[in-house]
Amino acid sequence: MDLIDGCRVFVATVDSGSFAGAGERLGMSGKLASKYLGQLEDRLGVRLLQRTTRRLGMTVAGEKLYARLPHWLDELDEIRSDLKESGSGLSGTLRVSAPLTFGEIRVQQVLRRFQARHDDLVIDLRLSDSYVDLAAEGIDLAIRIGNLASSALIARRLGRTAMVVAAAPAYLERHGTPKTPQDLIRHECIRDTNLRTPGGGWPLAENGEPVRVPVRGHYLVNSARAARDICLEAEGIALCPDYVVGEDLAAGRLTQLLKEHQPAPLAINAVYLDGRRMPRRVRAFLDFLKTESFNFSEAPSGDQG
């Protein structure tokens, strides 16, 4: 067993949660992946994984190794790529974090187009509405929407998205159309718990000033797409990003409400760690992102009540 192969098996096993998953990623059997991991442990003289019939867990030594090993392997892949005669291809693994719905709708498409240009590049897209720790998770770059907290991360603006109040025509026929933000208090509202708004409520605007409207309703969801689906069934009013409901508004399946009370668009940023050498594949992906449009606020809104 080559030491580097053993290291790759260890990282793939931790990432996938099983020897079978590691083998699938690396093009070998799960049995061989387990053998390589055992040989790596023998060579290092430490146990890296605790094996039970149900799961694999890292030991303290394994956690220490995993904290550094992915970046070391990426650096090695980068050196190999730089030494190629053409020097044009990218290799290694590009690890990107993105919000769940935005990642499914938009980011995965961008990554697919980027990967199509680089046959040796592996994409690791991790979707979560929680803010991940880039250093701890080994993430190269994260896409984030909204105001950024003060941190050591470097941010690059990609575009913007608007938050849209929308309802199905059938709902408005039964319950009437709200004319002011305060009218929402009397309506059934589908609340997305991912909205990070101090004090709760929906962030809107009145006379050019931000207001928080305390809405109520029978549905709380942690997905803008789920809120949109329930809204399409005429079960309430939703506040969703325009990239989620833009097509529905254009097709007339949903109607935008309170357009004059729409809050300022939210920024879409790419963030990455400062103070470390950026791999060439990450620099290339950041440059590629410049060619993509991430401005969604121009989406047709349909008729307004």
Automatic annotation (TrEMBL):
<keyword id="KW-0238">DNA-binding</keyword>
<dbReference type="GO" id="GO:0043565">
    <property type="term" value="F:sequence-specific DNA binding"/>
</dbReference>
<dbReference type="InterPro" id="IPR058163">
    <property type="entry name" value="LysR-type_TF_proteobact-type"/>
</dbReference>
<feature type="domain" description="HTH lysR-type">
    <location>
        <begin position="1"/>
        <end position="59"/>
    </location>
</feature>
<dbReference type="InterPro" id="IPR000847">
    <property type="entry name" value="LysR_HTH_N"/>
</dbReference>
<keyword id="KW-0804">Transcription</keyword>
<dbReference type="InterPro" id="IPR036390">
    <property type="entry name" value="WH_DNA-bd_sf"/>
</dbReference>
<protein>
    <submittedName>
        <fullName>DNA-binding transcriptional LysR family regulator</fullName>
    </submittedName>
</protein>
<dbReference type="InterPro" id="IPR005119">
    <property type="entry name" value="LysR_subst-bd"/>
</dbReference>
<dbReference type="InterPro" id="IPR036388">
    <property type="entry name" value="WH-like_DNA-bd_sf"/>
</dbReference>
<comment type="similarity">
    <text>Belongs to the LysR transcriptional regulatory family.</text>
</comment>
<dbReference type="Pfam" id="PF03466">
    <property type="entry name" value="LysR_substrate"/>
</dbReference>
<dbReference type="GO" id="GO:0006351">
    <property type="term" value="P:DNA-templated transcription"/>
</dbReference>
<keyword id="KW-0805">Transcription regulation</keyword>
<dbReference type="GO" id="GO:0003700">
    <property type="term" value="F:DNA-binding transcription factor activity"/>
</dbReference>
<dbReference type="Pfam" id="PF00126">
    <property type="entry name" value="HTH_1"/>
</dbReference>
